[in-house]
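New to this. Explain these tokens.
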Amino acid sequence: MGKPVVYGADYSVYVRIVRLVLEEKGIDYELVPVDVFAADGIPGWYFEHHPFDRIPAFEHDGFRLFEASAIARYVDEAFDGPALQPAEARPRARMNQITGMLDAYAYRAMVWDVAVERLEKTPPDEARIGSGLRQAGTVLTALSSLKAPGPWLLGNELTLADLHAAPIIGYFVNVAEGRSLLAEFRDIQEWWTRIAARASFANSSP
């Protein structure tokens, strides 16, 4: 099989999710830069890969995908390497629940409302940050309640749930409020320390 291609920017949470999966599977890939915030706009050719002008998009031997979760599952199932999805129905459902929860409730609050607002806006909107932190607290409470005993979110085996959560938490802890809130959840803090130390996380760093 040919080398897969990821289209997107290295700063993107969702591009990094896909890159983490590829890294954990031990797959060589090409990252083609596409900056959705570029001053001159998104290149016209990219709309052939993603009609909604988002990142990432993915291509492998002529097969194209967009949406990070779909790409992650394809990579796990189409390539050799350690399995990143549980074989049994209930833990697989839990994995899907966690990734869906992160998409719906964590990404906007933790990344945009807290981290980006604090780090990139002058002056930052403190009300937005406060609202984001409240939502983040709810997310972390839920994530802690869903976490299975063991080193990873589903227990003893690293899964797509861990790789989905890592870039979101990675942005969140770039600000003091994020680090302080995460420290209130010992099990998630220990998980974060563990996932952040993996070679895949270093190799996919922006």
About this structure: The longest helix spans residues 89-120.
